[in-house]
Acid phosphatase (Marchantia polymorpha subsp. ruderalis), 530 residues
Amino acid sequence: MDISRSLLGCCLVLAFAAQISLARQLSVQAHANDLVWSHDHWFKLSFNTKAYCLGWMKNVEANNIKNWDLIPLNCYSTVKKYMEQGQYWVDLSVAGDAAWTYLSTFKADGHDAVMFDIDETLLSTLEYQRDISVYGTTLFNSTAFDSYVAQGISPAIKSSLALYNKLKDAGFKLVICTGRKEQLRAVTEKNLQAEGYTDYTELVLKTEEYNGLTAAVYKSMARAKLVKEKGYVFRTCVGDQFSDCAGDAKGEDTFKFPNPMYYIK
Amino acid sequence: MDISRSLLGCCLVLAFAAQISLARQLSVQAHANDLVWSHDHWFKLSFNTKAYCLGWMKNVEANNIKNWDLIPLNCYSTVKKYMEQGQYWVDLSVAGDAAWTYLSTFKADGHDAVMFDIDETLLSTLEYQRDISVYGTTLFNSTAFDSYVAQGISPAIKSSLALYNKLKDAGFKLVICTGRKEQLRAVTEKNLQAEGYTDYTELVLKTEEYNGLTAAVYKSMARAKLVKEKGYVFRTCVGDQFSDCAGDAKGEDTFKFPNPMYYIK
């Protein structure tokens, strides 16, 4: 009696184990099929607008898609949602944290410097982008942009302000270099100060000597000049455009903040 | 009677227009508030795991987050979904298209070459990543990886195969350079051929002379050697790691395919 009960128990345990094993096997098979499905049907998904637009946005940040004038027009609502529903701020915040992770390894000795771009890096022009650029679906209008800048109402990107303050406390020299025109210096300074960006050591705006040059060339020349004339040692460069941090004296590692709305050479 | 009816009609039209205008104004106000909300609450969103993980993944592709060993463990389900539910293949497809957009501007003259990495670039090891690496939540195990490679079962990434074939037709030399070991040459060749990657002119695997070097140094040296000894002119380099395409002779523009599962120096 005891033996038969033990045998029954043993059989039940074995049956249960076999059932688990079978279920696991089936689950792995189903899982493998999912992978195959996804793979064989990538082309199907590429015709799904939202999936394509998310792919487009990711490839912009990876610097695979370059020299574009407008966002793909059918991506308007995906870009708008990205900008307005919070993921944009999260991505900026993670980017800022990554820059701090890198820079916190340096012991700033008085020469160590970081270069920051302004628009979409320290300050947000999102209101302009929404109302005038319509999230990258209309061509850049420098008159309208300058009018917007002249109002001095761009809010700080809070995660960038946090990064800026940590670098200030750590003894880095903070250099700001923007594509905004020299004529907009006073309002730009006022806007930066009002938003908490104080104690920077340089604010470089685009003077006439740089007219006709790309942002990449202008910013590279500006950094090289500061290195030569003032002894700055740039440890990194932070901008929302690849052109912010190309060329000379940009540091070993640079940081690209997200921006799916416009591309500046 | 006619005049009063006309006046009534006119009033109705004006009232309707005013209503539209008011609705529009309110909608713009609501819209502006949304922006402010998103902005002031970015920190709230940064505590949302999915939003953080999407931000982490995007910042990996922007080369802001470097030198990581494991994905953030709480991002496992976000990475798994990304890999399995199709967005990964779409992002790869958009990246492949971007590479073709760039390369189609060259007129290949017999020396023009493109360097491709293998794993997660031409072939997918997704089955290994799912079952053994568990999407980047376990440390790299070279024995297990070599056993997987030795099976020769990695499927082609279809969008990469399409790019590869277009480049072949356009007269580019196709050079393949992988971190896989020289001992795995036969099975790697068989796998590549079976998946449609034919007519490449070089297949460079990691020989003992490169032991102890990072992938970035090994691949840069391999390209420089091919340029010097065989006269290749690399127009671009395509890989899923930044180390695939760093250093010498990589071409003017390189392409980074998505990979949120592992990072190779």
Notes: The radius of gyration of chain B is 26 Å. Chain B has one domain: 49-256. The mean pLDDT of chain B is 87. Chain B touches chain A through 54 residues (CB under 8 Å).
